[in-house]
C-alpha cells in the first residue's frame, strides 16, 4: 500500500480534529502506520480548521503534507479552499452541509 495523505477541512466546532483522530486510530487498529496533525485559529467556533492524516504500511518520515491525495470538506466554505488547492492527484470533495 502506498502512503495516503488525507486533509479534512471545515469550520471550528464541526468535529474536524476528532474525525482525523478517529481515522488515524482506525488505520493503526488495522495494522497500518498513521500520523495526525491539526491546524486551527484562536476562535473556539467558526474559524477555519484543517487536519491532516498520513496512512502507510511502511515508515512515515514526516507528518507534514505538501499535496493531499484526498480532501474532505465539511462545510461549503471549505469547498472554496479545496478548489483553490486542488491537485492533479485524486480529489474527493464531500460537502456535509448544515
Task: Break the fold down into its secondary structure elements and pairings.
Elements: E1 4-11, H1 16-29, E2 33-40, E3 48-56, E4 70-73, H2 76-84
What do these coordinates show?
The chain is 23% helix and 30% strand. It is built from two helices and four strands. The protein has helices at residues 16-29, 76-84; strands spanning 4-11, 33-40, 48-56, 70-73. It has a four-stranded mixed beta sheet, with helices on both faces.
- Using DSSP, what is the number of strands? 4
Rg, alpha carbons: 13 Å
Strand order of the largest sheet: 2-3-1-4
Distance separating the two termini = 35 Å
Mean pLDDT over the full residue set? 78
Largest sheet: 4 strands, mixed
Task: Specify the structural class.
Answer: alpha+beta
Helix % is: 10-25%
What's this, in brief?
With 98 residues, this protein is α+β, with helices and mostly antiparallel strands. It has helices at 16-29, 76-84, and strands spanning 4-11, 33-40, 48-56, 70-73. It is elongated.
Amino acid at each position: 500500500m502506498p502512503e495516503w495523505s488525507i486533509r479534512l477541512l471545515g469550520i471550528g466546532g464541526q468535529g474536524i480534529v476528532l474525525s482525523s483522530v478517529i481515522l488515524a486510530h482506525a488505520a493503526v487498529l488495522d495494522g497500518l502506520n498513521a500520523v495526525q496533525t491539526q491546524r486551527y485559529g484562536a476562535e473556539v467556533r467558526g474559524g477555519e480548521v484543517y487536519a491532516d492524516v498520513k496512512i502507510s504500511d511502511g515508515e512515515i518520515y514526516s507528518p507534514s503534507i505538501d499535496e493531499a491525495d484526498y480532501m474532505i470538506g465539511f462545510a461549503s466554505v471549505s469547498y472554496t479552499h479545496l478548489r483553490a488547492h486542488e491537485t492533479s492527484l485524486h480529489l474527493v470533495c464531500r460537502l456535509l452541509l448544515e
